[in-house]
Amino acid sequence: MEVFLEFLKEIIKAVLREVTAHVFKKKFLDKRKTTLSSSRPKRKKKGGFRKR
Basic residues bias located where (predicted)? Predict the structure, then answer.
């Protein structure tokens, strides 16, 4: 029984660690990417192909 509880504790710790890492990544690292990319002017895309 004690081995099972230790195993369960380790699983809970691993899940909590993964969730925390995911939240940290979404909250801090993704915001930095959007601010860098939004500060650059966006290029217009030319539509279609024209023959002369």
Answer: 40-52
With tokens 């192909």, the residue in question is 49
Measure the CA–CA gap between 51 and 4, rounded to whole angstroms.
Answer: 72
Whose CA is closest to 10, among 23, 22, 2? 2
Amino acid code (one letter) for 19: V
* Stretch (H or E) spanning 16: helix 2-24
Give the C-alpha separation, 18 to 25, whole Å: 10
What predicted TM-score, i.e. pTM, was given to this entire model? 0.50
Question: Mean pLDDT for the chain?
Answer: 81
pLDDT of residue 28: 82
